[in-house]
Please model this.
Amino acid sequence: MNARTTRTIAAALSLTAALAISGCSSEDAAKPEMTVSGAFMPQPVNDKMAGAFMVIKNDSKTADKLLSATSPLSDDLQIHETKDQKMQQVQSMDVPANGELKLERGGNHIMFMGLKSTPKVGDKITIELRFEKADPVKVELDVKERTYNAQNSTAH
Ligand code: CU
Model:
């Protein structure tokens, strides 16, 4: 093997290595981005609690988790799941890669515990969602009639 061949091979190898590294790091940097639709809150009965419902869509190939939520309306927002018609708090909720997390009546939801005021139909409530990987997302909840259901209203 002469010197020139050796140099050519070395150059080819280092190029391959560089490509592999950049491919790898862009993969690591692929942060999921969430889009939220149909966010609403049924008008609360009193200032004790309120539910928030929406669809959180993850268009990336990286699975993520909803960890918490904050809002000016309450200092205590919890993530609840519903099992056997009883709701219970969970620490996080999966948002699958190329999938969605549905927060809906009778199922998973965000719960405001203790409200600073009692919102009325037509009000908008700001809520910020925090994820394990994605950047926080600010969402406006439309306060709707108590019987409102997003599933029915989008069906037509
Ligand atoms: Cu609840």
In short: Residues 3-28 form the longest helix (26 residues).
